[in-house]
Amino acid sequence: MPEQLQPLEAGxxxxxxxxxxxxxxxxxxxTMFFDEAVAAPCDHGWISxxxxxxxxxxxxxxxxxxxxxxxxxxxxxxxxxxxxEPEEVTAGESSQVLLELANILCGSVVSQLWPDSDxxxxxxxLIQVEGPIEDALHECFLLPEGMLAVSIGxxxxxxxx
Length: 161
Fold this sequence. Notes:
Blueprint: E1 5-6, H1 12-33, E2 38-40, E3 51-59, E4 63-69, H2 71-82, H3 91-113, E5 119-121, E6 125-127, E7 137-143, E8 146-155
Antiparallel strand pairs: 1-8, 2-7, 3-4, 3-5, 3-6, 4-8, 7-8
């Protein structure tokens, strides 16, 4: 995890991030997971029971990406992605699909936000969280099965989103 994440300023950056994240999340979830993600008001009571993944990135921009999915979403995305029946999915496969979803979303979002940047994504890791990254840009989505939340925070001195 980056040692210090800077607060991100509200305003145009929030709108660009929100628009980019909404578009990317909708595209990724529809094309790769056969699911529909609709931006939704945030209510983070579910996050403490969520499966969460943290992914850090460095290079021309430095920061942290956090993905959380409600238990119901966690159970539904793996079979859709793998093209198998839900009862055939192992816990390991479910975790791997969640790590891959975080990798895909983070890579797509940072590529859209900073197309000329030179970034390296670290390996995603499963973690337990109580809520989104503080002082980060954040969006929540409603899927037919439950909730998905994404946060992105930047290291101090690397510029905002």
